[in-house]
Inverse folding.
């Protein structure tokens, strides 16, 4: 039986309209994958929340890339004028956590069960941390990418929300021109924009796509 698609944006709006902007802001744990994806999410969400921005991405390869993306996010948080306080929470880099989570799924390609396991790993850390540290909600920037399945992210977040007893903010941040705005902000803040999702497999896949394109263009 096909699962019914959730209107995620409406769920987000339902929560945000109930928040009183005049009261002290609720605490949101925002899992961030990189600065470009976080730019619009921070601009949008800091109107409503005091945000702790968690950079937990053991999927990123190599380590130089991890520290580059983490550094760009920290710079962005320091440079952006944001309505409520935003605190940066960088997590240590342990690539083994990712390799263990995707064992047996390595060759499946982007958008497959490999990504499901990768999303779950990162969201589980966010949900657990949010519960243990008295946050009101957790969410992730991942849904802003046109390449990421917002429905899948919603289902994983919902499951973790019930497992840890912590509310989550459903998100499909690419909607309402969110993705377009993230590109504008990336230009404005001269943010480094990577050309692969993050893991070593996506790096190889991106390289292969580039070579295939070059070969195709060479034949034309
Ligand atoms: S392609 Fe991206 S989401 Fe998928 S496993 Fe690699 S880093 Fe994770």
């Amino acid at each position: 039986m096909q699962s019914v698609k959730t209107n995620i944006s409406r769920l987000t709006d339902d929560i945000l309209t109930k928040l009183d902007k005049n009261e002290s802001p609720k605490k949101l744990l925002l899992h961030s994958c990189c600065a470009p994806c976080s730019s619009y999410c921070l601009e949008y969400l800091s109107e409503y929340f005091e945000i702790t921005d968690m950079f937990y991405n053991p999927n990123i390869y190599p380590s130089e890339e991890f520290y580059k993306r983490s550094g760009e996010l920290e710079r962005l948080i320091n440079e952006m004028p944001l309505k409520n306080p935003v605190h940066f929470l960088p997590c240590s880099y342990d690539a083994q956590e990712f390799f263990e989570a995707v064992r047996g799924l390595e060759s499946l390609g982007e958008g497959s069960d490999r990504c499901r396991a990768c999303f779950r790993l990162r969201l589980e850390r966010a949900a657990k941390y949010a519960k243990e540290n008295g946050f009101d909600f957790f969410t992730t920037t991942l849904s802003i990418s046109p390449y990421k399945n917002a429905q899948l992210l919603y289902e994983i977040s919902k499951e973790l929300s019930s497992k840890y007893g912590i509310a989550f903010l459903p998100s499909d941040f690419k909607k309402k021109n969110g993705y377009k705005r993230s590109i504008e902000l990336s230009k404005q803040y001269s943010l480094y924009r990577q050309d692969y999702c993050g893991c070593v497999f996506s790096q190889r896949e991106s390289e292969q796509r580039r070579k295939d394109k070059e070969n195709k263009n060479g034949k034309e």
Notes: The mean pLDDT is 95.
